[in-house]
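Notes from the 1:1 (GR / supervisor)

We went over the backlog. Supervisor wanted to see one worked example end to end before approving the batch request, so GR pasted a single chain during the call. The sequence is below; no edits were made to it. Supervisor asked that the structure be written out right there so they could see what the output format looks like.
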Amino acid sequence: MPREQHDGTSVCNASALSLRDRLLPSHLLGEVLSKDWIDTLIPTAFLGVTAVALFILTPGFFAAASLSDLSRVLGEYLLVGMGVAIIMIAGGIDLSIGSAFALCNFVALALVFKFQLHVALAFPLTIAFGIGLGAINGYLVGYRRLRAFLTTLVTLVIFRSIFDLLALNYSATLLQNYQVNGIALWDFMGDGEILGLPSSFVAALLVAAGCHVYLTRLRGGWHVQAVGGSRRSAFNAGINVRRTVAATFMLGGALTAIGAFFFAARLNTAGSSTGVGMELIVITGIVLGGISLGGGRGSIAKALLGMTAVICITNGMLRMGLASGGSSMVLGAVLIVAVILDIRWAKNRHKVLARNYVAPVRFVMPPLVDSQPGAATPYAMNQGLAGVSAIGLRQLEGPEDVILDEDDHLYTGTRHGDIVRFLAPDYSRQEIVAHIGGHPLGMAIDRDGSIVACVAGMGLYRTTRDGEVTCLTNETNRSRFSIIDDSKIKMADDLDIAPDGRIFFTDPSVRYELSDWLNEALEMRGNGRLICFDPRDGSTRTVARNLIFPNGVCMTNDGQSLLLASTWACRILRYWYDGPKIGQIEVVIENLPGYPDNINRASDGTFWCALVGMRSPAFDLMLEMPKVRERMIKRVAPDNCLFANTNSGCLIRFDAEGRVLQSLWDPTGEAHSHVTSMREHKGRLFIGGLRNNRIGMIDLPEAGQDWSGYRSYWGDAR
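Structure output shown during the call:
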């Protein structure tokens, strides 16, 4: 395996980067904002501010005994809060939790003291009672499709009325018998510790781990998030929406009962104020933690952070002697702020990200080479492609690359995710070889006749002659200091196969998907890489990083190096994958008049290269002014931004030393305007185009009439 290339920035015009961009790359802000955990920063920051304020205003708040008492109460509230969080992620809300908590507390005391049940039996029975209360809300909201807010407001009143009646008639006699079956377990749940932490707090942490796994790793949790995101879409996807909604309320009831049982074991009381105002505290904490009121967004970690902040505030105000009315007023103010943050951030996050993610840098292009008709350069515009004929006209969409086998059959990929074969000799008949699902871009034929293809957004795939599709790889080794997860292969583009079977392919961007490929031209930062897949051991490793949109790949005839197109830098590079120069990158052609795409072999030992678009003085000048591009991105709609010209192109032929020998143009754009690839085969040139609806074909009278790419690579291997 070649060693990893570490000085790729030297090939990417690093000298043109500003000092600010070297010391503090501006793209880091956009990458941080794109992370899913960015929403957690708000409750984390709020919790930090709360801790500092309590440290200043409440002496002794962080003493060991004080924290122990706080964490015991916190554990009970966290258990209740996690249940409500799951309900809210599913798009609901539960205002009855305070009343349900009080009822569960009363039932727990009655089972233990009045009916003398063993604590180990009373605990699951209390949970079952809580599930029953949740099932009432779940049935009304989930199956009867009533409004969650109004429904739980009504059940709040009903549950509270039932509790008040029970407390009024039985609280005096409820605790007359102090004999408890399972007193050790009862005391442990009320006042016990595990490794110095209160038992209720440890239970909350264990439940939090289970809820996290449920939401992120299990099908039921995925259904909850899908229902919260869009109930109609979830229903259309086959999810039982009613059952899912009902299940969240039942789960919330179970967690409320667990918290109430710990509360009962700690205080042994069923006072009339039990659970009063709990819904305000819990919902404030959950919304502050970033759980969306609209559903579909949030996590258990965020709920824990928000709940912890609110419980600390409540406890701190109690220590400062603030009246209950003042405490509620503060919590109401916090809830208003949390709601505003939730609504504004959810509405504007993508706008903020769009304005900050694309981070241009300065890049200086060499003087634009003259390609006008009659110019004294090999790039002079001509009518070389005027005679191109069309294959599969209006039957294809997006044949980015083309390839031919030893039987002269022509293959290409389509935007519909198919690999299509046109049958020789006239290519009038076609058939689908395989359906991959993603758009096949660059392709190569292996020694056994199978087709290896780069599939945008999916990775590297192999299709056998019988149409069997196999994923070879869809990830590589992650960079040590990368904010984004660059192990995923986002935009596998072109590939070629070395004589020993290793497959080298390009991933032009670790930041953008195929739909945003032009953003790389606006950045010019060097986000691309060259990756090697070794079929001998199934390993995948990045061998060169920090390349400016690496694109076409073509093996040279020396068996030690490959040619590599750097599209937006208008360069062709050579990467040494073997031999004494292993790991080094050299510039073969420095100043092309357009943007190079795929590179392939020619019959005379030279190479063909497609120019997907042509440079313009205006865009070259913009590359030297990153602030101009930055202002354009922030102030102009993407459809109106000035991008690199990719509406016209041409083909060039060059030798291994970088001398351009020939260029073929279609200046009118009528024959084959958009060019992304080409393959020479037995005296003909077959041309592909990402935006075209056909494959072009033109005769090459001076080319080898018996030469084929397969024999050039594998000889008579078949």
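Supervisor's comment: The first strand starts at residue 193 and ends at 194.
Batch request approved.
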